[in-house]
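Section 5.1 Outputs to date
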Amino acid sequence: MRWDRLFEDLEAQLALEDARELGSEVADRTRRERALLDLHTRLLANVGATSVGIRLPGRLLTGAIVDVGPDWVLLETAPQRPVLVALSAVRSVTGLGPGARTPSVVAKRFALGAALRALSRDRAVVEVADLDGRPATGTIDVVGADHLELAEHSADESRRAANVTGRLLVPFWSLGSVRRL
């Protein structure tokens, strides 16, 4: 009887130690998995989230996440008013749910330059804001490897040579957001 209790006690101690080791291993694996997540995958898992706040230097944009690329997020701040935000300009994000989603191979390649080229191809009048929040309006004429060139003109005028008041070159690393007007 005494030996039975001793063995039961030893078995209970071993089981407790096994449970502790398993808990520790699960926690360690969870930390490693989370360390592999990036902002892109977190935002991608929240496409459709409606109460998201994206803080840029000096301003806060709130709205619904419409789409996400490897280095940009499209946030609808008002009905039919999406804003393209460069992830390099994001200072913080609020309102995200848990989880992450791995992007498709095609989505991984649809970078900021490709999104800006689509706006340029449409000849859309846009407002480009730099990291300091300074806006400039016009039409994107050129999208290079690491910059865009904006033909500046009034938002209520079309892009015609007579309406262009200047040309603005904006490197991607200083781009905050682009909003179609």
